[in-house]
Design a protein that fits this description.
269 residues; alpha/beta; TIM Barrel; eight-stranded parallel beta barrel; binds orotidine-5'-monophosphate; decarboxylase; RibuloseP-bd_barrel; Aldolase_TIM; lyase
């Protein structure tokens, strides 16, 4: 999916919601008997009107072994072509190896994008940028408490690591093929993050269960093509623990869509 197609979907849906498919078999309502694919299909059916993207986190499927790989692929096929699909795998290795991670995400799974850790530098990210129409989403400032350990630290007398990552990575890939992960738990940083990368999309996790600030993210982070994909996983998947889980997921997604519609009206330049 191209950037223009993504922005068109955002305008049509009046939403920049990404639903995270972090499906934990122990949290699936009893009547599904641990059937992860059935749960995912019910969540997708319940939320597809209100979101533009889905983000299966591959960890949850890898943990299920061979069955998990099948479920991941079937989930992606079930989502179809109308939504932007992010394989959240946070890969990155020497170039030769990254090429195979890219092949898995784009050929085997058929995802539009994969999350990538930039720690190993340009040649570790480049293989993810060799696929026309596909995207690398580079970790810049992550949402977790451990982001304090390295990402806020200055490198020599220069800018903090997240700023260096964003500046350097823009020389690797254009706004048509590279996004940045910027956590919603750092709302006070979004004006600066947007200044650092005016045109690139940001994938923004951390609202809901991690307590991030959606309005501040939108106020400071939106650009002329919206430039934001805001993810919620647990807040939607487990909105209700019982038979009403799909309706509750739909309501949770709808509520976020409405906040996003208001933000588009208020903040889209
Ligand atoms: O790359 C990610 O998506 C990601 C980056 C980050 O900084 N923080 C973060 O939470 N994530 C992912 O986003 C999802 C957040 O899930 P919830 O906190 O349940 O909404 C999980 O799949 C995380 O792995």
């Amino acid at each position: 999916m191209t950037r223009q197609e993504l922005f068109s979907a955002i305008q049509r849906k009046r939403s920049f919601l990404c639903v995270g498919l972090d499906t934990d078999p122990s949290k699936i309502p009893g009547q599904l008997n641990g059937d992860v694919l059935a749960f995912n299909k019910a969540i997708i059916d319940a939320t597809r009107d209100y979101c533009v993207a889905y983000k299966p986190n591959t960890a949850f499927y890898e943990a299920l072994g061979l069955d998990g790989m099948r479920i991941l692929k079937d989930t992606i096929d079930y989502i179809g072509k109308e939504h932007f699909i992010i394989a959240d795998a946070k890969r990155g290795d020497i170039g030769n190896t990254s090429g195979y991670y890219a092949s898995f995400a784009f050929h085997t799974l058929g995802a539009d994008a994969i999350t990538v850790a930039p720690y190993m530098g340009a040649d570790s990210v480049q293989p993810f940028l060799n696929y026309p129409g596909k995207w690398a989403i580079v970790l810049a400032l992550t949402s977790n408490p451990g982001s304090d350990d390295f990402q806020h630290g200055a490198v020599g007398d220069a800018a903090p690591l997240y700023a260096r990552v964003m500046q350097r990575a823009q020389t690797w890939g254009s706004p048509e093929q590279l996004m940045f992960v910027c956590g919603a738990t750092h709302p006070e940083k979004f004006a600066e993050l947007r200044q650092l990368a005016p045109e690139h999309f940001f994938l923004v996790p951390g609202i809901g269960a991690q307590g991030g600030d959606l309005d501040a993210v939108c106020r400071h982070g939106m650009n002329a093509e919206c430039g934001l994909l805001v993810n919620s996983s647990r807040g939607i998947l487990y909105a209700a623990p019982d038979a009403g889980f799909a309706e509750a997921a739909r309501a949770a997604a709808h509520e976020l869509q409405q906040q996003m519609e208001a933000a588009l009206k208020n903040y889209l330049p």
